[in-house]
Amino acid sequence: MIIKVRLQPKSGSNKVVDYINGILKVKVTAVPAKNKANDACIKVLSSFFRVPKSMISLVSGGKSKDKTFDLKGLDNSMFENKLTRLKN
């Protein structure tokens, strides 16, 4: 499943914070240098969606705060189910 992410590096925490207009907002404490923020984002997505990090790949946006990830093994119903955690 392809998902769009807005990444906020150098934040106070590592977490998924919101889902607005088809974009998942993720905060990470890592700095946006040497792929540290991208790697931290993958860890957060892995934890949030409960999929192995090896199943998540960055498709585009390596040097941008707007990114596209491919989460293998995640379908629409699983995605929607996990998003209910944000609303509760």
Put the structure in a nutshell:
The chain has helices spanning 36-49, 76-87; strands at residues 2-8, 15-20, 23-27, 56-60, 66-71. The protein is α+β, with helices and mostly antiparallel strands.
Write up what this structure looks like:
It is a single chain. This protein is α+β, with helices and mostly antiparallel strands. The chain has one domain: Conserved Hypothetical Protein Mth637, Chain: A, CATH 3.30.1200.10. It is built from two helices and five strands, in the order E-E-E-H-E-E-H. It has helices at about 35-50, 75-85; strands at about 1-10, 15-20, 25, 55-60, 65-70. Strands 2-3-1-5-4 form a five-stranded mixed beta sheet. A hairpin with a 5-residue loop joins strand 4 and strand 5 (about 65-70). The radius of gyration is 12 Å and the shape is globular. The mean pLDDT is about 95.
